C-alpha cells in the first residue's frame, strides 16, 4: 500500500463548500441507487430548448450495445455557455487571455463581448458554407480566436475537431482525412516561449495530403509572412468585417455530435473520440462545479492546451457553462523563467489553477525561490490532471505553492470520459498525496483481474467502469465497431479504461498508470504503435519497438529499439536523423528520448515481440528479465542489455 499520509478537510472548507462529507455520501449513493431521477434533476443545470424526460439509456452488452443520455432533449451548447448568462452576468469577464510575452497587455472579454465574437465567427463559418454536422478542423495557437472558433462550431451545430498545434503536417493531414473535414481554422503563426510555430505553413503542407480540405480560414495572430492560396484560403479579419454580431443558435438534439478529438490508443492510428452535446456539457459543468467547488466570481485557470480534452472541458465548456471567468494562457510555465505561472496567478488574482504533474516537476527542479518571489494569496485550490502525481510533487505543490492553505484536487479521467471521474471535493474528501481519492456521482469504478473477475476490498487490478455516465464518449468517428472492440470486449459488459489502479482500505483510488501499450509523456498520451509506424516509414529501418521508461520530469519517456535493413550501418548521425524523422512525422511530443540500434528484437517463436523484456531493459532493470527461454533467439537479449542506451 502507498504512503497513507492524510490531509483532512480543513474545517472552513467543510463549512462553506457546496458538498461536505455527508453530502458526498448522499449524492453518490443516490446517483447509483436512482440514476433516472438523479440525472434528470442534474439536467436542470442546463438550459434546454426541450427538457429531456429520459436520462440514461445504455447497455455495454454486445447484443444491445448503445449509449444515450437525455436523448429526447434539445439544446444548444454555445447558448448554454454564452446566451443564458447575458441577462445576469453580461458584463462579467468570461475570458481572460494572457499572452506569451509577459510585457504584453492581456485581452479580456465579457460574456457580452464573447457572445458577439462567437456569433461573428459563426457567421463567417456559415458564409463559407459550413453547416450543421460538417466537420471543422481547428489547428490554432492558444489565442482567444481558438475559443471563438470552437464555440462558433457549437453554435451552428458543426462538429469541431481540434488538432493540437504541436502536431506535424503529416499528423494533421491524417486527422483531416479521417473525419473528411472540408473546413479548417488556423492562424498565420503560433507563439510559445518566445518561439514561433508556422501553423499556416504546416496547414499548406498538410493540405497536399488531405484532398478533403476545401476552405482554410486564417486568423492573423503574429502578422508573420504566409502564402494565401486563391480559392481556398481566406483571412478571418476580412471575412468578419461585414458579418453581423448575432447568430441564432442551432437547436441540437442532446445526442447530436459536438466534437471529435483524436487520441492515441494501444493499436493503430489515433481514434476520433466522439462526444455529443447534452451529456458531455452536463458532465463538464457538473464536475467543474463539484471537484473545484466553483463559485460565481472565481477566476479559474486551466493551464492545459485547448488541443487536449482538458482544454475542451475545463478551459471552455465546463467553466463557461457555469458562468466562470476562465483564463487562457498562450505561453509556457517556465518562460521567461520559472516564476511566470505564479506571476500570472498574481496578475489576474486566480483562485484555482489546474495543471499537470509534469509542469510541477519541471518547476520544482528550478527551486522554490521562483515561487517565493510571488504572492499567490488569491489561490484557494490547486488542481492536477493527466498522469499520476508523485507524492514529492504533490507535497511541493501543497507546501510551497499553496503554503498549506489550498487543498489539492487530483482528477483522474480520460479523453473518452469527457470530464473528471475520480477526484476529491474540497469540502468532503480528506486527501492522500498521490491518490485521486473517490469517484464522482454516477461513476462506478471496479477492479478486475486479467480474467475479468471483479476484485473486492483493498487490492490492485485493472480499472473498469461498470455503468455509463453522461460524459462518456459515444463512438469512434467512422468506426463504431472499433469503439466496441476497444473498450467493451476485454472485460465484457464493462468499460475498460486501459489503466491499472489500487483501492486501499479506505476505498481510496490510486491510479498506477497504463496497463496497455500507451505511454504518458508529460501528461500527453502517445501510442507506442504510432511511434513504431513512424520509425518504420524511414527507408533504412526494418523494424522498431517502442516502450515507455521512467523520466524525472516527463513521467514517462520514449525508448525506441530500431533494427536497420541489412546493409545499413548504425551511427550517432543516423540516430539523430531518426529522432528528427519522428518529430517531423508526428510532432515533437513523440520524439524518442533514447534510441537503441538492435540487431534483433526479442520475439516468441510465433513472432510476437516480448515487450516486457524491452521495458525492463529500458528501465535499466536487467537483473530480472524473467524467463527468456521461450524466445526464438534468446541471444538477442544479451546484445540488447550490452548496448542499452543510458
Ligand atoms: C492518465 C487526460 C493518474 C491515465 C485527462 C489516463 C492520470 C490517461 C490522471 C488519459 C490522474 C489522467 N492520475 N493518471 N489524475 N489523469 N491520467 O486521454 O493513464 O489525455 O488513462 O486525458 O492519462 O489521458 P488523456
Automatic annotation (TrEMBL):
Keywords: Acetylation, ATP-binding, Ligase, Magnesium, Metal-binding, Nucleotide-binding
Sites of N6-acetyllysine modification: 608
Boundaries of every Acetyl-coenzyme A synthetase N-terminal domain copy: 24-81
The keyword Nucleotide-binding is assigned to this record: yes
Post-translational modification: Acetylated. Deacetylation by the SIR2-homolog deacetylase activates the enzyme.
Record field: catalytic activity: acetate + ATP + CoA = acetyl-CoA + AMP + diphosphate
Binding, CoA: 192-195, 310, 522, 583
Domain AMP-dependent synthetase/ligase: 83-468
EC numbers for this chain: 6.2.1.1
Cofactors that this protein relies on: Mg(2+)
Gene3D superfamilies registered for this protein in UniProt: 3.30.300.30, N-terminal domain of ligase-like (3.40.50.12780)
Domain AMP-binding enzyme C-terminal intervals: 530-608
Pfam (any one): AMP-binding_C
Function, as annotated: Catalyzes the conversion of acetate into acetyl-CoA (AcCoA), an essential intermediate at the junction of anabolic and catabolic pathways. AcsA undergoes a two-step reaction. In the first half reaction, AcsA combines acetate with ATP to form acetyl-adenylate (AcAMP) intermediate. In the second half reaction, it can then transfer the acetyl group from AcAMP to the sulfhydryl group of CoA, forming the product AcCoA.
Family: Belongs to the ATP-dependent AMP-binding enzyme family.
HAMAP family named among the record's database cross-references: Ac_CoA_synth
Protein name: Acetyl-coenzyme A synthetase
Source species: Sphingomonas oligophenolica
Source organism phylogeny: Bacteria, Pseudomonadati, Pseudomonadota, Alphaproteobacteria, Sphingomonadales
Amino acid at each position: 500500500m502507498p504512503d497513507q499520509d492524510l490531509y483532512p478537510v480543513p474545517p472552513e472548507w467543510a463549512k462553506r463548500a457546496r458538498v461536505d462529507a455527508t453530502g458526498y455520501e448522499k449524492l453518490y449513493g443516490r446517483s447509483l441507487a436512482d440514476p433516472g431521477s438523479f440525472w434528470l434533476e442534474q439536467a436542470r443545470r442546463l438550459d434546454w430548448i426541450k427538457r429531456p424526460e429520459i436520462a440514461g439509456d445504455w447497455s455495454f452488452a454486445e447484443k444491445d450495445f448503445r449509449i444515450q443520455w437525455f436523448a429526447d432533449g434539445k439544446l444548444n451548447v454555445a447558448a448554454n455557455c454564452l446566451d443564458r448568462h447575458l441577462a445576469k452576468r453580461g458584463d462579467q469577464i468570461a475570458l481572460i487571455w494572457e499572452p506569451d510575452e509577459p510585457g504584453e497587455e492581456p485581452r479580456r472579454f465579457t460574456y457580452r463581448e464573447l457572445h458577439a465574437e462567437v456569433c461573428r465567427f459563426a457567421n463567417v463559418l456559415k458564409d463559407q458554407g459550413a453547416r450543421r454536422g460538417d466537420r471543422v478542423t481547428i489547428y490554432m495557437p492558444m489565442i482567444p480566436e481558438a475559443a471563438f472558433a470552437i464555440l462558433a462550431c457549437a453554435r451552428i451545430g458543426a462538429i469541431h475537431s481540434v488538432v493540437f498545434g504541436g502536431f506535424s503536417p503529416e499528423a494533421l493531414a491524417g486527422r483531416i482525412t479521417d473525419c473528411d473535414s472540408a473546413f479548417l481554422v488556423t492562424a498565420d503563426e503560433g507563439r510559445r516561449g518566445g518561439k514561433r510555430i508556422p501553423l499556416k505553413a504546416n496547414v499548406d503542407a498538410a493540405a497536399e495530403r488531405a484532398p478533403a480540405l476545401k476552405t482554410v480560414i486564417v486568423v492573423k495572430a503574429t502578422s508573420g509572412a504566409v502564402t494565401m492560396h486563391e480559392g481556398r484560403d481566406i483571412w478571418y479579419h476580412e471575412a468578419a468585417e461585414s458579418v453581423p454580431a448575432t447568430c441564432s443558435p442551432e437547436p441540437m438534439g442532446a445526442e447530436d455530435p459536438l466534437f471529435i478529438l483524436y487520441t492515441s490508443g494501444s493499436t493503430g492510428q489515433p481514434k476520433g473520440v466522439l462526444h455529443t452535446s447534452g451529456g458531455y456539457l452536463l458532465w463538464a459543468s457538473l464536475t467543474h462545479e463539484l471537484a473545484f467547488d466553483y463559485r460565481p466570481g472565481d477566476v479559474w485557470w486551466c493551464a492545459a492546451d485547448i488541443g487536449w480534452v482538458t482544454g475542451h472541458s475545463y478551459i471552455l465548456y465546463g467553466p463557461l457553462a457555469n458562468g466562470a471567468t476562465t483564463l487562457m494562457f498562450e505561453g509556457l510555465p517556465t518562460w521567461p523563467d520559472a516564476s511566470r505561472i505564479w506571476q500570472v496567478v498574481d496578475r489576474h488574482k486566480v483562485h484555482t489553477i489546474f495543471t499537470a504533474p509534469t509542469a510541477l516537476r519541471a518547476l520544482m527542479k528550478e527551486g522554490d525561490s521562483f515561487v517565493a518571489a510571488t504572492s499567490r494569496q488569491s489561490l484557494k485550490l490547486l488542481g492536477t490532471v493527466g498522469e499520476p502525481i508523485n507524492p514529492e510533487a504533490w507535497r511541493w505543490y501543497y507546501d510551497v505553492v499553496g503554503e498549506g492553505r489550498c487543498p489539492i484536487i487530483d482528477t483522474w479521467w480520460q479523453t473518452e470520459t469527457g470530464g473528471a471521474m475520480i477526484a476529491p471535493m474540497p469540502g468532503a474528501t480528506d486527501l492522500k498525496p498521490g491518490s485521486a481519492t473517490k469517484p464522482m456521482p454516477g461513476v462506478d469504478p471496479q477492479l478486475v483481474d486479467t480474467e475479468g473477475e471483479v476484485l473486492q476490498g483493498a487490492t490492485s487490478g485493472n480499472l473498469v467502469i461498470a455503468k455509463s455516465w453522461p460524459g462518456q464518449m459515444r463512438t469512434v468517428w467512422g468506426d463504431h465497431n472499433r469503439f466496441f472492440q476497444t473498450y467493451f470486449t476485454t472485460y465484457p459488459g464493462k468499460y475498460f479504461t486501459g489503466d491499472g489502479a489500487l483501492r486501499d482500505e479506505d476505498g481510496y483510488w490510486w491510479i498506477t498508470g497504463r496497463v496497455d501499450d500507451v505511454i504518458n509523456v508529460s501528461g500527453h498520451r502517445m501510442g507506442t504503435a504510432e511511434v513504431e509506424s513512424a520509425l518504420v516509414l524511414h527507408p533504412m529501418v526494418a523494424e522498431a519497438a517502442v516502450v515507455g521508461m521512467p523520466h524525472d520530469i516527463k513521467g514517462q519517456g520514449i525508448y525506441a529499439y530500431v533494427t536497420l535493413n541489412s546493409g545499413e550501418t548504425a551511427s550517432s548521425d543516423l540516430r539523430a536523423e531518426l529522432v528528427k524523422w519522428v518529430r517531423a512525422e508526428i510532432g515533437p511530443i513523440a520524439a524518442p528520448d533514447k534510441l537503441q540500434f538492435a540487431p534483433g528484437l526479442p520475439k516468441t517463436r510465433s513472432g510476437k515481440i516480448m515487450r516486457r523484456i524491452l521495458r525492463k531493459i529500458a528501465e535499466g532493470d536487467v537483473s530480472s528479465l524473467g524467463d527468456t527461454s521461450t524466445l526464438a533467439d534468446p541471444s538477442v537479449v544479451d546484445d540488447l542489455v550490452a548496448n542499452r542506451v543510458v
